[in-house]
Amino acid sequence: MESGGRRVIVTALDHQRSQRLTTGRREAPVPQRIRHRERASVVASRRVAEATVWLELESPAVAADSRPGQFVMLGYGLDSPGQFMLPRPFSVGWRSGDGRIGILLRIFGGGTHRLSTLRPGDSLLVLGPLGVPFRLDERPVQCIAGGVGLAPFIFLSDQATAAGRSVRLIYGERSGSHVFDPELVKRLTGMEPEVWTEDGSLGRQGLVTRGMDLEDDSILLACGPTPMLQAVRSLAHKHGKPLQVSVEEYMGCGVGTCQGCVVPGSDGRWIKSCLEGPVFDAEDLAWPT
Fold first, then answer.
1. What does the pLDDT read at residue 33?
2. Rounded CA separation 39/76 (Å)
3. pLDDT at 110
4. What does the pLDDT look like over 96-144, one tens digit per residue?
5. Which has more pLDDT, 93 or 1?
6. How many Cα atoms within 13 Å fall on the side-chain side of residue 227?
7. Cα torsion angle, 61, 63, 69, 75, sign
């Protein structure tokens, strides 16, 4: 249907996903997903670290319905044939009260390089919000972020601290030159991240897992490269800590069609992370032994 000039897509959950989320391992009921497809204007673009850019897009419909852990697909659309590229998935990194969303991107190839050159006034096609968000209760939260896995935790920390929740943001990078501007993180979230770098050039030296508190009563949330997620899951499993992970997978569509984002489940199934994730209970996935 059309809403205010924007296309709004409302979909019921597919049967398999509905069965899993209502009668399987997850207990919380999942509502219908609302997806918006809208042309968004670039409001701000700034380089915040080596090969890393922070974009702010005017996307009021997506901003209104997004929750921490969800993502959007960004592209140019078929109405811009000279700029065609496959859409790219990005976590919703933040939202403002006036309808902006924040996107944290790191330049890995031609597509992300093109997106990094966007300037205020340029436009993109946005589809979202997509996927399953993080689930919180009354317990304190530890967010363990690696690289651009920081993005959903900027959003979550902002929302959680505003609601009076206790949150730690533990953020790791290879070196200080790759660290997202800590002052901007503080401005967006109201809190300072605990920075770890492998070479010790900024913050504390070591892997980000060294910052985890495995003895308290908090929930662990993690997003980052797969090796980091494996290390966090190993520690959480050993200490009996609840853990949710947000996986980083290649996606060509974001809506379950291309099957490029499947991950192995602990029950032997291949799971589409764009539909049943990207956030999972860690024990719902198969991990190397």
1. 62
2. 9
3. 87
4. 999 999 999 999 988 899 999 999 999 999 999 999 999 999 999 999 9
5. 93
6. 4
7. positive
What pTM was estimated for this model as a whole? 0.87
Nearest-10 crossing angle of helices 151-162, 182-189: 40
Quick one: tokens of 80? 């811009």
Residue 38 carries which side chain, given as an amino acid letter?
E
pLDDT tens digit string along 187-240? Answer: 999 899 999 999 999 999 999 999 999 999 999 999 999 999 999 999 999 999
**Contacting residues for 82 by C-beta, under 8 A, at least 6 apart:** none
DSSP string, the chain: -EETTEEEEEEPPPHHHHHHHHHSS--S--PPEEEEEEEEEEEEEEEEETTEEEEEEE-HHHHHH--TT-EEEEE--TT-GGG----EEEE--EE-TTSEEEEEEE--SHHHHHHHT--TT-EEEEEEEESB-----SS-EEEEEEGGGGHHHHHHHHHHHHTT--EEEEEEESSGGGS--HHHHHHHHSS--EEEETTSSSSEES-GGGG---SSSPEEEEES-HHHHHHHHHHHHHHT--EEEE-----SSSSSSS-TTEEEBTTS-EEEHHHH-BEEEGGGB----
Closest to 196 in 3D by CA, of 217, 182, 215: 182
Q: How far apart are CA 252 and CA 145, in angstroms?
A: 24
Output the CA–CA distances (angstroms, integers) from residue 141 to 39, 165, 172, 259, in the order listed: 34, 8, 17, 32
